[in-house]
Design a protein that fits this description.
By secondary structure, the protein is mostly helical. 70% of the residues lie in helices and 8% in strands.
Length: 129
Amino acid sequence: MEQLATTQLERALPKGMSKAQFGVLNHMVRLGKLESPAELASAFQVARPSMTNTVQKLLAKGFVEVMPHPNDGRSKIVQITKAGIAAREQAIVALVPLFEKIGQALGPEVFEAAVPLLQQVRIYLDENR
């Protein structure tokens, strides 16, 4: 199911944006805080090199800035840029037709029933990493 959803998601995202890149941008907008690449890796439960690669791709596109951590000169912090916020918004707009199509095919009652259950699973998994 995850593979099928990822394929559909990446087809709908703006050209050149991966699921991982969208996930980081979305995470940063939702939480509104600065995080180190290590903190981002932990949040997404991926290896640090994988997150570093994703951050570098976002940096190359101008979607994030990477700067020295103000309290720890050895580490860096990642900050989303205005271009990154705009890219995230563009991605969300691009995803609307996909979610509308799924919603029309399955009906709203499927999502109304599934969302609370999926939220419980997410909370459990998050608390039991």
